[in-house]
Amino acid sequence: MSQLGFRLNEKKKTELKHKNPLKFRIRKKVHVQEIQEDKKVKPNYYWLFGSIAAAFTCGLTFILITLPTYEAEMTYIAPSLAVISVLISMFQWIQQMLAMNLFKRKVPYARWSAVGIYFMASWCVFASSIAVMQRNWILQFASSLTAAMIGWLGFQTIFAGEFVIPTRQQLGALAQILLLSFLWELRTFVVNMHFESESN
After folding, report:
1. What residues does each domain of the chain span?
2. Global pTM?
């Protein structure tokens, strides 16, 4: 049965080649291109260590800057925000993996390491939350935009399957992500201004 199916498939290819040679060549070229895209991408180790070091340094810096300024009114607020920030980042990783159907095949090390990148982004998200409560708008915007950049790094790593230098279009996506993140934080800033004016 399998041999019969193979013969019919070869017969169909031969008919297509004689009937429309150009269409056959295009299909063959697309098939070869898909195979080449599946080949393993070589990592750029300068980008790997540089981006990880920058993400770790930025996340830790914002945590160390914002936490000493926090005046705790309720003891559970800061730990709750920390847990929520980590959960948001972890679910972002899962969402990206599911959206690209990447759990179907063997997950490479780089995509697993993106979990750590999103975890470092959660530090900046947590710092941004503390800055909002302390009404430190500069730290709020700075930490949120940094979190967006680190999150973009995680997404780019998941998409490429390896630590590679981003393309121009991916850098354009980064610019759009930063703009959207800025607008979200601007929205939070305006809403807080409303409540601040009411309290006065």
Report:
1. 2-37, 45-199
2. 0.75
